[in-house]
Fold this sequence. Notes:
By secondary structure, the protein is of the alpha/beta class.
Amino acid sequence: MSLARVPRLHVRAPLSAETEVALERPQCHYLVTVMRLKTGDAVRLFNGRDGEWLCRLLGDSRKRCSAICTEKLKDPAPPPDIDYVFAPLKAARLDYMAQKATEMGVRRLRPVFTDHTVPSRVNRERLEANVIEAAEQCNLVFVPEVMAPQPLGALLEQWDPARHIIYCDEAAPVANPLQALKAVPAGPLAVLVGPEGGFSERERRRLRALECVHPISLGPRIMRADTAAVAALAVVQATLGDWR
């Protein structure tokens, strides 16, 4: 049996040998109606605490089903301790950004409202659904935590200075981001990407006044915020994360 062809789902319930896990109704519908699984067929379940397990489907109703764990496949694999702090975008691009941040290996997503942020609210449940879908599809044995949105100023007031902030700023004094990142010490990190209109001068002054903030440039071209997210996370993972 090729595990690559076995459906894979994230669950919140504990996973262990011979444990029966009740699946949610949409998951039952997916397995039974879309994937056409029957009782006894294989399914992979994972969470961020107990790893990934090979399970057998119990029941083949699209409304109610469960699975029993038979074999542990992988241990939990949390990514580097990197927070992704971002100004929310419009729905479709925010979906994309949440999925790519998950694939790039962040541990938390922190939406913040800035002076130039256009959306006035964040659908946290939708963000969580996007990170779960990305983790399911990319064989991650971890799902990033989605934090409640808050104003950037309030976040900075309670910020732990031990977590250094890599701040994407087109006016950064060092043009090469790889060179600038050499000054960042090892330890917990955050990558901060602003809104389409950039940070206000007030926000720039506040960020630059913090000793734990490290501005980096992403090159000579202006990027959309969702593109900047992928670019920034790539250079951070390559220099300070788990791509080294």
